[in-house]
Amino acid sequence: MSYIDLLRESAKESGNIVCMGLDPVLSVLPQSEASVRERIGSYFSELFRRMRLEGIAPAAFKPNIGYYQSLDDPRAEDFSGSLALVDVLELLETYFPGIPVILDSKRGDIAKSSENYAREAFDCWKADAVTVSPYMGHDSVLPFSYQDKGVYVLNRTSNPGAVDFQDQTVLDKVDEKELYPLYAAVAHHIIAWSTDHPGIGAVVGATSPKELGAIASIYSGKDIPMLIPGVGSQGGSAGDVISMMKEAGYELALARINSSSGLTHPWKKGAAPEDWLDQCMKAIHKLFDEAAL
Predict the structure, then answer these.
(1) How far, in Å, CA of 140 to CA of 134, rounded?
(2) Which has the minimum average pLDDT: 29-38, 156-165, 226-235?
(3) 209 CB contacts (<8 Å, ≥6 apart)?
């Protein structure tokens, strides 16, 4: 199954377009004397089991690799964080088969290095998609177009510093007659790359509604997946995002609206309260309802 088909199928099966970020923060997990690996595995196992019992699932999952590998101590031959990610991926296969997993690693390097990063994401971690930086151009991005996998190119991101470069006006090499914001030029390249490499899409933040609407219009009528972070803790609204995409004529089933801490630890700081599972489920149900198809 192609990545585009996988997105459409998972949206249909789950009934929503939510992407659930899985970024563990040890300080907000329940207090425990267990190992790092056991704490993370136990936490997500209990959350996933409850979701499964209630018959709900998102339309994608997105673990950020840095949250796991930063818990490793490789010089001491301790790979607890990486092994915890292995456990989480295996839990997803058990509880949510058929739901795509996006490995958020934001790779992008010279061509040979990108080939190795692609193998890392798809052969080693067995992810369905990966996030990639476009800064080094086509020979950095295209090695990730790999055996019907998905590639989310950073297009217009949700962080405050995005304006430093992404809003700069440039002469677009795809259309040399026009000046565009850099994010629009990147969008035009994504479309060009996707012609021969289906599954290439875009990361577009919900925290910049004007830019999100403009980019959704550029992608209207085209099979360009969009990964949309910035909803929830960062201030974006799922309802507003869906309204913008509908107004732009963008196919909702190809979008994934991401929330991470807002779903997995909505209390934000301090050890998990006794009712942590109920708090998570309340937040999950709320976003699933807002982002329902």
Answers:
(1) 7
(2) 226-235
(3) 236, 240, 244
Please state, in angstroms and rounded to a whole number, the distance separating the CA atoms of residues 178 and 98.
42
Give Dmax (Cα) for the chain: 63
Residue 3, both tokens: 């990545």
DSSP helix/strand/coil, 251: coil
Q: What is the CA radius of gyration of the chain?
A: 19
Q: d(Cα 43, Cα 60) in Å, to the nearest integer?
A: 19
Pairwise CA distance, residues 186 & 277, whole Å: 40
128-171 pLDDT, tens digit per residue, is: 999 999 999 999 999 999 889 999 999 999 999 999 999 999 98
Separation CA 293–CA 285 (nearest Å):
14
9: CB partners within 8 A, 6+ apart: 1, 98
The residues that are catalytic are 106
